[in-house]
Amino acid sequence: MSTPFYVSPQQAMADRAEYARKGIARGRSLVVLQYADGIVFVGENPSRALHKFSEIYDRIGFAAAGKYNEYENLRIGGVRYADLRGYTYDRDDVTARGLANVYAQTLGTIFSSAGEKPYEVELVVAEVGETPEGDQIYRLPHDGSIVDEHGSVAVGGNAELISNYLDQQHREGMTLAEGLKLAVQALSRESNGTQREIPAERLEVAVLDRTRPQARKFKRIVGRQLARLLEVDGASTEAESSTEGEGPDEE
């Protein structure tokens, strides 16, 4: 009779964490950062059908890096949770903190289960407040822990390099154009110190805009509006952007 192969619980968890981190690192990075009128999501994504950013509820957005099929399942579950809670209680009872707790429980259970592999995903859940002080950004790694972020956060790919750059360059009160350009500059940085060019057509950009008159604050920025924001400085660009793309997000 052969002796069962023994692996200590600490080693097993370390191996699972390393597996998940490597899977996440293979994906493209994305950035979520605060600007004067809300929160902007920026990522390199050549696909126009498979989104990294999505609306969860009125004031809540979702961003994810890693395996698409895994974070898409989590996104759908989050939408169902938000719709049910808003219908059962009140729309104001649906919060980013509550949604982050639900995601943390799900990811933590999967990560600690010996019967299935850990999810190769890293999530960001953001909620725009009435003022910048009311904004909330939560990062959820593969193990289900919750990190309360302020100002900016990067996940996937070269997240550590990008986060260090954002910590140095990000400031409060940036316009949408300034925040978008900073995010693109951070995403274009390579580990060897060089920078590459990311064309506008390869960018996926969305915002939670607190100035929108609609209850739903999420909208995507595409086409000519995105090109103008990347090319032109000044408050006039942001004023123009607030009048475009006001239709509901199509998911």
From TrEMBL:
HAMAP family: Proteasome_A_B (MF_00289_B). GO terms for molecular function: hydrolase activity. Residues 241-251 have a biased composition (Acidic residues). Residues 232-251 are annotated as: Disordered. GO terms for cellular component: proteasome complex. Gene3D superfamilies: Glutamine Phosphoribosylpyrophosphate, subunit 1, domain 1 (3.60.20.10). InterPro entries: Ntn_hydrolases_N, Proteasome_alpha, Proteasome_alpha-type, Proteasome_asu_bac, Proteasome_sua/b. It comes from the Bacteria. This is Proteasome subunit alpha. It is found in: Cytoplasm. Keywords: Cytoplasm, Hydrolase, Proteasome. The formation of the proteasomal ATPase ARC-20S proteasome complex, likely via the docking of the C-termini of ARC into the intersubunit pockets in the alpha-rings, may trigger opening of the gate for substrate entry. Interconversion between the open-gate and close-gate conformations leads to a dynamic regulation of the 20S proteasome proteolysis activity. The 20S proteasome core is composed of 14 alpha and 14 beta subunits that assemble into four stacked heptameric rings, resulting in a barrel-shaped structure. The two inner rings, each composed of seven catalytic beta subunits, are sandwiched by two outer rings, each composed of seven alpha subunits. The catalytic chamber with the active sites is on the inside of the barrel. Has a gated structure, the ends of the cylinder being occluded by the N-termini of the alpha-subunits. Is capped by the proteasome-associated ATPase, ARC. It holds the Pfam family Proteasome. Pathway: Protein degradation; proteasomal Pup-dependent pathway. Transmembrane segments: none annotated.
